[in-house]
């Protein structure tokens, strides 16, 4: 699984990139056919951090957006939501 991170209007530090890799890398436990994960980090004018995550799986894309005071909090929220979405998608596909 490939994880691509794009930071808009700023340069993300290595610590944040490592955190994203570690957190979103765990998604493979819940759905093993993930093609890639694309992450967009946006620094809003009012100092709100916005994270948009797109998970490409065969036949579908799951997209989640969250805003928080820190990028880490937003990534955590996205990861939790995506975990639930991946589990539901897997159950739908394999329990027909």
Assign the structural class, choosing from mainly alpha, mainly beta, alpha/beta, alpha+beta, or little secondary structure: alpha+beta
Q: What is the CATH T-level topology? A: Double Stranded RNA Binding Domain
Low-confidence stretches: none
Total number of domains: 1
pLDDT averaged residue by residue: 92
Strand content: 25-35%
The named CATH superfamily: Ribosome hibernation promotion factor-like
Which strand order do you get reading across the main beta sheet? 1-2-3-4
What distance lies between the first and last C-alpha atoms, to the nearest angstrom? 26 Å
The CATH top-level class label: Alpha Beta
What would you say the CATH architecture is?
Answer: 2-Layer Sandwich
**SSE succession:** EHEEEH
- Which percent range fits the helix content? 25-40%
What's the total number of strands? 4
How would the global form be characterised? Answer: elongated
Give Rg in angstroms: 14 Å
How many helices? The count is 2
Q: Profile the largest sheet.
A: 4 strands, mixed
What does this protein structure show overall?
- The chain is 38% helix and 34% strand.
- The protein has 96 residues and is of the alpha+beta class.
- The chain has a single domain, classed as 2-Layer Sandwich (Double Stranded RNA Binding Domain).
- The chain has a four-stranded mixed beta sheet with strand order 1-2-3-4, covered by helices on one side.
- α1 packs parallel to α2.
- The protein is elongated, with a radius of gyration of 14 Å.
- The mean pLDDT is 92.
């Amino acid at each position: 699984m490939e994880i691509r991170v794009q930071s808009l209007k700023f340069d993300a530090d290595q610590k944040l990139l490592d955190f994203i890799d570690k957190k979103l890398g765990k998604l493979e436990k819940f759905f093993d056919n993930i093609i890639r994960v694309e992450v967009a980090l946006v620094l809003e004018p009012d100092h709100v951090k916005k994270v948009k995550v797109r998970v490409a799986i065969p036949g579908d894309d799951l997209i989640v957006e969250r805003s928080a005071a820190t990028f880490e909090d937003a990534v955590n929220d996205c990861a939790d939501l995506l975990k639930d979405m991946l589990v539901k998608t897997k159950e739908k596909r394999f329990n027909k």
